[in-house]
Design brief:
By secondary structure, the protein is an alpha/beta fold. The protein is built from 13 helices and 10 strands. The protein has a 10-stranded mixed beta sheet with strand order 5-4-1-2-3-8-7-6-9-10. Bound molecules: zinc ion.
Length: about 400
């Protein structure tokens, strides 16, 4: 029997951070195969933590266990609520990506009673929440939407936001993270919000495609701040009318990462990325400071040349809005570089398709006329990889040796 064992460890101090860690052991039969430390570093002022709580480690490792076909054995405490939810979460992935994920069993040393998801208090106009904050368009829109009460009865009082080193910014890239954190801290400070950092080596340990594990990864990190508020908000990616399935974070599955002590809410799926840009533009201070780029060439801001930077410029330009200062502040750069865009995923293609559907009166800009060729190029590439490349390989294999 192949098993993935999770052994939570006592907290320790590393480089001034408080480290919460778990040993992840692969065991085949009775033979240990490998052992890795999965760690999450929080600042000393972060809320207290019970070392026996294994919920973040289980959430973080579920997709890895399913990917490797290993049963999970958790040497700690997990709530019955989380176990039930994760069973359904696993069913989603086994159904939508059966070639990649298998159903696995989960055995836990201590199961805490089923208390149901914490309900928001009726007395509070805005129940408290925490939120993930990268400084990007989705995250900035999320805090603005809740700060202004745009979410109606769903509006939350965000008590704290968490910025993570180890996802888009490598966990050992101190300069890059510090610069990004300083900008995000200033942005949130203008709304009176506290920002906490968290550093993790999760991506080095959980070797599963990122586009399928970013939801579990975020939920695992936010668990370490659940003492601040019983609800955590994850900013939406694709809107309800253009959902990409399967995808690591979506309104279909994110709530299934809730435990008895932390309810996960997927927030804002009624808005497209361009809708978010339009609404965020009513907060120029926030809009002008967004950081959307995954490139490490411009710590704390954007390269203004990659697909995501150009797409975000387009999200503002499509409504005739000014381009944010952090993205160059000028549409001419978008017009000049649009021909360089190469789409790498179905989600990126869906985003550009949605941009093509928005029509404003008057002549279209150069960048708008380029969307159709960009989508065609992406489709031709997909056909080549799916059909022609295997055929060419087969042909090459049959060719007589010279
Ligand atoms: Zn960029």
């Amino acid at each position: 029997m192949k098993v993935l064992e999770l052994h939570p460890e006592p907290a320790c101090t590393v480089d001034g951070w408080t480290r919460r860690a778990c040993e992840v052991r692969r065991v085949d039969g009775n033979t240990p195969q490998s052992s890795h430390s999965l760690w999450f570093d929080v600042p000393p002022e972060a809320p207290a933590w019970d070392d026996a709580d294994a919920e973040p480690y289980l959430i973080a490792c579920l997709m890895l266990a399913m990917h490797e076909g290993r049963s999970l054995r958790v040497r700690g405490r997990v709530s019955r609520t989380l176990l039930e939810n994760l069973e359904e979460y696993a069913a989603f992935w086994v159904t939508t990506a059966p070639a990649r994920y298998q159903r696995v069993t989960v055995e836990v040393d201590e199961v805490s009673p089923h208390t149901g998801a914490p309900a928001p208090s009726a007395e509070l106009a805005r129940p408290a929440a925490i939120a993930a904050f990268s400084g990007g368009l989705d995250a900035s829109f999320l805090v603005w939407r809740h700060h202004t009460g745009m979410a109606g009865l769903r509006s939350r009082q965000i008590r704290a936001a968490v910025m993570i080193a180890g996802f888009d910014i490598p966990c050992d890239s101190r300069v890059h993270f510090d610069a990004s954190f300083a900008v995000a801290h200033g942005t949130l400070q203008s709304l009176g919000l506290v920002l906490y950092p968290l550093r993790t080596n999760l991506r080095q340990v959980i070797k599963v495609p990122w586009e399928q594990v970013h939801g579990t990864s975020l939920a695992a990190c936010l668990q370490f701040y659940k003492a601040i508020a019983p609800t955590a908000l994850l900013g939406s990616c694709e809107p309800y009318n253009h959902l990409v399935t399967p995808w690591g974070s979506s309104p279909v599955i994110d709530h299934l990462l809730s435990s008895a002590s932390l309810r996960i809410v997927h927030d804002g799926a009624e808005y497209s990325r361009s809708d978010k840009a339009r609404l965020l533009a009513t907060w120029p201070f926030g809009a002008n400071r967004i950081r959307v780029c995954w490139s490490d060439t411009h710590p704390g801001t954007n390269c203004q040349a990659c697909e995501k930077c150009l797409r975000t410029m387009a999200n503002f330009a499509v409504h005739g809005l000014p381009i944010p200062a952090s993205l160059g502040g000028n549409v001419e750069r978008l017009n000049r570089l649009i021909g360089t865009v190469r789409l790498r995923s179905t989600a990126q293609a869906a985003e550009w398709r949605a941009l093509r559907l928005i029509r404003q009166p008057g002549a279209r800009d150069r960048w708008q006329r380029w969307i159709t060729p960009i989508l065609w190029r992406c489709q031709l590439r997909a056909v080549f990889h799916a059909r022609l490349r295997p055929w060419l390989r087969q042909l090459a294999g049959r060719a007589p040796a010279r």
